[in-house]
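Input set for joint prediction.
Command: fold jointly, output tokens.
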Amino acid sequence: MKKMENNPLSLVDKNSKVAVIAHVNPDGDSLGSTLGLGLALKKICNQVAIYINDEFPKKYSFLPAYQDIKLYQSEDHAPFDLCFVLDCGDEKRLGYSKRILENSIQVINIDHHISNTNFGHINLIDAKASSTCEMIYSVVKDFKVEFDKDIATCLYTGIVTDTGNFIYDNTTSYTHKIVSELMELEIDINNITYNLYQNRPLNTVKFLGYILNNLHICYDGKLAIIEVKKDLLGEFNLSHSDVDGVINYARDIEGIEVAVLLKEVNMQEVKVGFRSKSHVDVSKVAQNLGGGGHKKASGATIYNGLDEARKKVEEELKRVL
Amino acid sequence: MKKMENNPLSLVDKNSKVAVIAHVNPDGDSLGSTLGLGLALKKICNQVAIYINDEFPKKYSFLPAYQDIKLYQSEDHAPFDLCFVLDCGDEKRLGYSKRILENSIQVINIDHHISNTNFGHINLIDAKASSTCEMIYSVVKDFKVEFDKDIATCLYTGIVTDTGNFIYDNTTSYTHKIVSELMELEIDINNITYNLYQNRPLNTVKFLGYILNNLHICYDGKLAIIEVKKDLLGEFNLSHSDVDGVINYARDIEGIEVAVLLKEVNMQEVKVGFRSKSHVDVSKVAQNLGGGGHKKASGATIYNGLDEARKKVEEELKRVL
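tokens >
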């Protein structure tokens, strides 16, 4: 690894007041990077606060030190010297946490989304990194903060989830090198695997079965669409976040180039997820609908009914399929 | 890596007549190791023959040099100086290829199955290796044969398939270190991922949907049983090997300790697959039924009808669940 020229950790001293925040609806990479960097910062600084907007997702409650995460309260308005914003392409994705950013003297934006808007005073953006956790590894390693099992567990979790278990094409030789080093710290991959992948409630598995039998395939077998009406969540006793994974099954069908998941949130609000298999850049498709993301995985929210939202999505995709 | 004391490649010279063989119903690790070692041997030896018993599985036809694999013909009886047997716990799993072994002066048995019977003149058995491909990497590296993109592609394929994409607990820091080195040879992981995971025929996806809606859960939610009658394969237009993957979905359900897949091959022949989540050693369960395998993944063949076979399996599992 080349020595980093301006390591943002060099701005931190023992008495700095530091906040670490991430995007709404946190996933493995945002939680892993937030906790991983938070734990590393605590080794060099006495006042580190980690915030998330939402409730901590139960699935990730195996992560070390997740109890240290605070829910944002309005009295936390006291200014921070430094605010690290992780895995967040856009200030709008910060939800309430945006107020923390606004009450910080310096904002350090560390992210791997190509669509990042460079909203920080310092912006460390690497669209070639597999994950924000991979970037945090490099920052922490370069600054010679000692890794431990807890930090390694957090960073491993972000890397394994954002690379689809090391098989998406964001995975590089360097990704595996990092993971090899993290595993030397004796992280319990059995426990991580169990929590991430081997503990699926039966209702989510039955729901997957239902979805696979009700796929809409169109555009000469290149497009798969999954529609999830609000009622269906009730029928299977699921929350919105339980549903997201099914889109990958649709993408992985022979001939399918793009898979779309339409989730009816309310009568006039539909969350849309996109997955691309090879050449289609779905970050652009999502951007045209007011969203964003990566080339092969992106999302947007459409403020229409389900039928209307579906038509808009089909229109956008007609141009690229 | 420590220098290997008796590297079996030191037995090979330029004019040796060498065969490389693997088990019946070859999977990613047996094909990857057979082709990977075969390609490496061709760099140091002029007469290398690679055999498999069965037709080459279409899914793996992206592997380099798979055209070099021969189907065993009885005229191939001429004695070999050396026969490398890979990823094969037991001579019985060699099928017809056993004749090649019997017509070889020295047999070199390289395998990572704990149940290996040490049937070779030289036995290199490492039950801690993630895969036979990982062992072949070490043998080739130690002997200083130069890796290239083709060899790397073969070995990567065996490692990624036998580790369930690097998440099973056979995955170690060393596994990731190897993969990091293999990826430096610019293997096309997009293409490998596409062929292994993103090219599933629609009928196999619909079949998965059907199976997930027809699981039998018993023993207080600890055991999931999938029964596949011969007729069902016809209905979905599937071959036996298309079916195997569904067992993992059953294992990954919350509370399930063991998943079983019963495949009716004929009226009096049932192939049984076992997957364990944590503490149950299913290699022992399979051994009690005349089969074998790994602690968390094993199999056996029961020569009874489906109902009888199921009863036998339930009896065996009652003791351990």
